Amino acid sequence: MVNVLYGALVASLLFASVVQAKTLTYAVTDESWVPYWIVDEQRVSGILHEFMLALDERLPEQLQASHPLPPLRTQKLFREGQVQIECCVSKSWRSDGDQGAGALWTVPVLETEEMLIFAPGRHFPYRHLQDLRGRSIATVRGYGYAGSEYFQRNDGADARALIYLVAQGRSEAGILDRLEWRYLQHEDAQLQAPRWQVEEGPTINRSQLRLRLHRQLAGRLEVFNAAIRSLQVDGTLARIIARYAP
């Protein structure tokens, strides 16, 4: 019954007014964020890639991906209106300067979780970000982290380097996205070796990822929201996530 009601809601929003279908471009950066965006030269895959393909089928507009571009370049194109959609970012990531000015935000698409990882048997008590005060925490170079004012960063080049720093005892803990960890466990046999062993710890931060729409799409927000909810309610998004993070 819930699925039927959401289907009716989507249909009513899509056809309540005559909308001339047009092509909208969404940003794709050239930096991989597995398993959300997986960029291999010009080949793109990942959870959010498949989500956008599924969303395209629920909207009268045609959605097309930009060529993979540097993040700052895609943000500039968004401000100029040459790219109309960003998928999927947190409001807090676009709060500085003119990044959030005039933008429209959809309902959350999904929520990410950052968790602590530890070398086996090396857990320490954690309840609040302040509990990381003075500790050496493995991170990825160039990434921002909640609570970074409390701990000493030990930067690695990527998530695998972060995991290795923790497994080898070179950091007291590391901060890793939970879905990214699931994906790496499934895809990277190297992580099964004893010298790479780590254990999951508690979640320390959550971020809601949403579509950011250019202001020229004012009036289409509820149509996008209805389409996103329909992909959540009928299990499409959950099935996509399960393929990448079983």
Relative strand content: 15-25%
How is the biggest beta sheet arranged?
7 strands, mixed
Order of helices and strands: HEEEHEHEEEEEHEHEHH
Number of strands: 11
Question: Share of helix among residues?
Answer: 25-40%
General shape:
elongated
Distance between the termini: 28 Å
Secondary structure class reads: alpha/beta
Average pLDDT rating: 91
> Number of helix segments?
7
Rg, alpha carbons: 20 Å
Description:
By secondary structure, the chain is an alpha/beta fold. The chain has helices spanning about 1-15, 45-55, 70-80, 160-165, 180-185, 220-235, 235-245; strands at about 25, 40, 45, 60-65, 85-90, 105, 110-120, 135-140, 150-155, 175, 200-215. The strands form three sheets. Strands 5, 6, 7, 8, 9, 10 and 11 form a seven-stranded mixed β-sheet that branches. The protein has a two-stranded parallel ribbon with strand order 1-4. A hairpin with a 2-residue loop joins β2 (about 40) and β3. It is elongated. Mean pLDDT is about 90; it is low at about 10-20. Keywords: Signal. It comes from Ectopseudomonas toyotomiensis. This is ABC transporter substrate-binding protein.
